[in-house]
């Protein structure tokens, strides 16, 4: 894959000697995966489990399949599953997912809570928050509140409230380049533009 000069220099500066291996990974085939839903009474058996994950499996699941439509599984790549796995909230905790749409992290966080505690899934985009609501309902999580607010407003209402805050911040979308080469132009233009600073304290 031919990279724009700015993209290569950016990751050489960030990764140093590891940049070559990172850039070479874009030539590898994209890895698809999904998670089973431990909140559902009915379970489906799959092979090819992702090592060291409680619910992850390699493979593709159609968005029109009965398993997906009924919330038995959630399609999510292995790397995306790492966020909630690292956070790994305990049942009974009060958790905030600050940038939650479309729901991958929130459904996984809800899996760890197992119906005990509270998950506030927030999405600042009203359009994306509707998708978030649909996915949380499909997943069957009952201890979740979906909000459509700014971080500043949430901080005023929930000051000192949460045990855990998860923020998988919006990015440039560079990870999608391997799947959709047409995103190169959009992604490269966002390399400099997408700088997120978080100064809100809860």
Overview of the molecule:
This is NOL1/NOP2/sun family protein. Belongs to the class I-like SAM-binding methyltransferase superfamily. RsmB/NOP family. Pfam families: Methyltr_RsmB-F, Methyltr_RsmF_N. With 202 residues, the protein is an alpha/beta fold. Helices cover 36% and strands 13% of the residues. The strands form two sheets. The chain has a four-stranded parallel beta sheet with strand order 6-5-4-7, with helices on one face. A three-stranded antiparallel beta sheet has the order 2-1-3. Helix 4 crosses helix 5.
* Helical amount: 25-40%
SS strand fraction:
5-15%
Work out the helix count: 8
Q: Which blocks of ≥5 consecutive residues have pLDDT under 50?
A: 185-202
Largest sheet: 4 strands, parallel
Mean pLDDT, all residues? 87
Shape: globular
User: Structural class, from secondary structure content?
Assistant: alpha/beta
The rounded Rg comes to: 18 Å
Question: Biggest sheet, strands in spatial order?
Answer: 6-5-4-7
> How far apart lie the N and C ends?
43 Å
Which SSEs are present, and which pair or pack?
Elements (H helix, E strand, L loop, with lengths): L4 H11 L3 H6 L8 E4 L19 E3 L7 H4 L3 E3 L2 H10 L6 E4 L6 H10 L4 E5 L3 H14 L4 E4 L3 H7 L6 E3 L16 H11 L9
Parallel strand pairs: 4-5, 4-7, 5-6
Antiparallel strand pairs: 1-2, 1-3
Helix pairs in contact: 4-5
